[in-house]
TrEMBL record:
Its cofactor is Zn(2+). SMART domains: DEXDc, HELICc. This is Replication restart protein PriA. The keyword Mitochondrion does not apply. Binds 2 zinc ions per subunit. InterPro entries: DEAD/DEAH_box_helicase_dom, Helicase_ATP-bd, Helicase_C-like, P-loop_NTPase, PriA, PriA_3primeBD, PriA_3primeBD_sf, PriA_C. The gene is priA. GO terms for molecular function: 3'-5' DNA helicase activity; ATP binding; ATP hydrolysis activity; DNA binding; zinc ion binding. It is an enzyme of class 5 (isomerase).
Length: 774
């Protein structure tokens, strides 16, 4: 018999299940709720629960839940904490810890778990693996409004037998009361409060006091368009070529099993067609599909491609959505109403009803790794989930990460290759342009200008890649050497001429540029080419050809990227200038020339992943050329035409280049051959972070660098490449180990030795499998 109890001004339903078995059970490791068979202990009418609470602490907190309240792992609760209250998630039943007074929860928000056992286990694993507080980790799986404690229930009212009686007897006096009671009586299963707005609240409360109606809560309905309503308007699929068919058949034969499939297909080889074919098969089984894409690739064009071909509305999940849309998509994926979910990295923690396949497109992309806070890698979390669920996961890329290539060589992943472009287009011809001692106009050599002209006159589109937005990288005084620097970071300000602002790309600080040099009053001049300036230069050289710029600045307004992409697609714009945004999976059939304006910038990157990242960007941007009937040319401007790596990449190709890099990493004892974690510390005080990390390094050496064990190397501390950011001094310590268990043991010991993550104004964090070395 359900009972209702008043709480906090609202109503919530408590279902009496005192005799029901406890659903989730405690384990040795509190992190995995599915292992072990402890019964929850209960006393004084309470069942004790471990609750994951957001906050900096690694531990779980024990609270009591009344024994007659339905409580299962994965439900949200409000609990008292200190003087306030906080929302948490029931994690696992607990023994009563006698030395503490255990407080009861204030309320249970959900009447079914929002997160199922698989996802809870995944979150527990991720908290352990990434050394991040469990309570914070759990939040990643909840839509933003659910994190804030939004109820998934609506308040509703239903009539009681005495109410029926009162209507039949006609004993009710007030006309309003009678009207409301009649309205509620029409729907025996209940009417939601929102449908009763016409009646004052007092009238409802009066009827409730009279015992004629009762409040209860009902689940919010999902509003997702279901598959059946959409089908019938799918675009036809092309016939797959031999390599595509082979890839599809290999995975299709193993749809019921976990397996990681690396689809290494050259740019334009039709990887997306392989995904689509497999997705259709999984949908035909009535199961769901998750597609993870890089941040920047999640354009309306991509979503349209899936919508048109699959004949359904995918749920799209990314951080730019408003809370309402996000919740709606979250609910639809969880209920199974949305069968296809496309999202950026955070979607990897989405609950599903019945997930049958995961696709990670452009798996090498750095945006899958969150660099601040909870430093998870979405690809790796996705692989964990696929294993647990026993479903296949496909990683696709023309330029796979060294991590994935190594896993192929260790036979952990299956390799599938698409060696040629689909539809018969040839691979582009990549050439180096030696710009030493050449006349340069706005960063363009005469040879490049001539090539652009030839391609434009032949009717093609030309794309210029420059990974620096803004007009100029900085403003310089020729007379005294003054350069505009950020007041808060050790970096130069970028001049954005369009809005006439100096901006720091590291901390966002902005200011008006000085009209003359603040030092000597001479005139300032721009130095270092940015995309804005390149756009100006091209407009001057090739008037009338139409030019479009794609960079982060161009994307600040909603729909702007879409408009720009449409102008490119329609060939209204013949020249395209852009940063990394260009690199991601666009399919512009008329692009015949791609120019890499400044390769040198990236050749001398200051971290060990620099060469890999540069190679991926070069090959990806080159892959935008010659995708249809026009042959593609790629010209790379450099002052280092003899650079060994650059030449190997261009002449032997990415696969060969990557194998060389892997050998170098093995030689140097670096990831992915060894496991790595970066400890970062920052503070307003210049010395404090260095001292803390030195202290840690000493401790690690003393306690853990036992030469009898497999070696553990500690490098640093060194100042971060960006040594000061937003007014804080930054240092880092790199820890390398031959095997992961050893690394994780060291990190755990370090954590328990250090305790809190904030000491005397110093913040420190652990980044496992670091990608961004800055
Ligand atoms: N079997 C096929 N027959 C004809 N055309 C195809 C076939 N497969 C793919 N295509 C076409 O080839 C082009 C490239 O395909 P797609 O975008 O799937 O490649 P991709 O490998 O995902 O590319 P990239 O990694 O460069 O973004 C598209 O226009 C697509 O429609
Ligand atoms: Zn700054």
């Amino acid at each position: 018999m359900p009972r209702s109890r008043r709480y906090d001004g609202g109503y919530f339903e408590i279902t009496a299940i005192s005799s029901a078995p406890v659903e989730h059970v405690m384990s040795e490791s509190h992190r995995d709720p599915s292992i072990g068979t402890h019964e929850a202990s209960s006393g004084e009418g309470m069942v004790y629960w471990q609750v994951a609470l957001p906050g900096p602490l690694q531990m779980l907190f024990t609270y009591g839940v009344p024994a007659d309240v339905s409580a299962r792992a994965g439900m949200r609760v409000w609990v008292p904490l200190g003087k306030g209250q906080r929302m948490g998630v029931l994690w696992s039943p607990a023994e009563k810890e006698t030395e503490w007074v255990i407080k009861p929860v204030l309320s249970v928000l959900d009447d079914e778990p929002l997160l199922d056992e698989e996802l809870l286990a995944c979150l527990g694993w991720a908290a352990d693996y990434y050394h991040f507080p469990l309570g914070e980790t759990v939040l990643a799986a909840l839509a933003p409004s659910l994190r804030q404690g939004r109820s998934l229930h609506e308040l509703a009212w239903r009539i009681l037998p005495s109410g029926e009686q009162a209507l039949a007897d006609g004993t009710l006096r007030g006309a309003r009361q009678r009207a409301l009671l009649e309205r509620i009586a029409q729907t025996p299963q209940g009417v939601s409060e929102s449908q009763l707005r016409d009646f004052p609240k007092a009238v409802r409360l009066r009827l409730a006091d009279l015992g004629l109606i009762e409040p209860f809560e009902q689940m919010m309905p999902s509003t997702w368009p279901v598959l059946a309503e959409m089908s019938g308007n799918k675009l036809p699929a092309p016939d797959l070529n031999e390599a595509q068919s082979a890839a599809v058949s290999a995975v299709a034969a193993c749809l019921e099993n976990f397996g990681v499939w690396l689809l290494e297909g050259v740019t334009g080889s039709g990887k997306t067609e392989v995904y689509l074919n497999l997705i259709s098969r999984v949908l035909a089984q009535g199961r769901q599909v998750l597609i993870l894409v890089p941040e920047i690739a999640l354009t309306p064009q991509l979503v349209t491609r899936f919508t048109d071909r699959l004949g359904l509305v995918p749920a799209v999940l990314h951080s730019g959505l408003n809370d309402g849309d996000r919740l709606n998509a979250w609910l639809a994926a969880r209920s199974g109403d949305a069968t296809v979910v496309i999202g950026t990295r955070s979607a990897v923690f989405q609950p599903f009803a019945d997930l049958g396949l995961i696709v990670v497109d452009e798996e090498h992309d750095g945006s899958f790794k969150q660099s601040e806070g909870f430093g998870y890698h979405a690809r790796d979390v996705a692989i964990w989930r696929a294993r647990r669920l026993g479903v296949p996961i496909m990683l696709g890329s023309a330029t796979p990460s060294l991590e994935s290539l190594r896993n192929v060589s260790l036979s952990r992943y299956h390799l599938l290759t698409l060696p040629e472009r689909a539809g018969g287009a040839a691979m582009p011809d990549i050439r180096l342009l030696d710009v030493r001692q050449q006349r340069m106009r706005g960063g363009l050599s005469d040879d490049l200008v001539a090539a652009i002209e030839t391609h434009l006159l032949a009717g093609g589109q030309v794309m210029l890649y420059l990974n620096r937005r803004g007009y100029a990288s900085n403003l310089l005084c020729h007379a005294c050497g003054w350069v505009a620097e950020c007041a808060h970071c050790d970096s130069f300000m970028t001049w954005h001429r369009g809005v006439n602002r100096l901006r720091c790309h590291h901390c966002g600080f902005e200011r008006q540029p000085p009209s003359v040099c603040p030092n000597c009053s001479a005139t300032l001049s721009p130095r270092g080419l940015g995309t804005e300036q390149l756009e100006d230069v091209l407009t001057g050289l090739f008037p009338g050809f139409g030019i479009e710029r794609l960079d982060r600045d161009a994307l600040s307004r909603v729909g702007e990227l879409d408009r720009r992409l449409a102008r490119i697609q329609s060939s209204e714009a013949r020249l395209i200038v852009g940063t990394q945004i260009l690199v991601k999976g666009h399919d512009f059939p008329h692009v015949s020339l791609v120019a890499v304006v400044d390769a040198d910038q990236a050749l001398f990157a200051n971290d060990f992943r620099g060469a890999e990242r540069f190679a991926q960007q070069l090959i990806q941007v080159a892959g935008r050329a010659g995708r249809a009937s026009r042959a593609g040319t790629v010209l790379v401007q450099t002052h280092q035409p003899e650079h060994v790596g650059l030449n190997r990449l261009i002449h032997a190709g990415y696969a060969s280049f990557a194998q060389t890099l892997l050998a170098e990493r093995a030689e140097a004892g670096l990831p992915p051959v060894r496991a790595a974690a970066m400890i970062r510390a920052d503070a307003r005080d210049a010395d404090a972070p260095r001292e803390l990390l030195t202290h840690m390094a000493d401790w690690l050496h003393e306690h853990l660098a036992d030469p009898a064990d497999s070696p553990l190397d500690v490098w640093g501390p060194v100042p971060a490449p960006l040594a000061r950011r937003a007014g804080r001094y930054r240092y880092q310590l790199l820890i390398l180990a031959d095997d992961r268990p050893r690394l994780h043991a060291a990190l755990s010991q370090l954590e328990s030795w250090q305790g809190t993550r904030r000491t005397k104004g110093i913040r420190w964090s652990i980044d496992v499998d670091p990608v961004d070395m800055a």
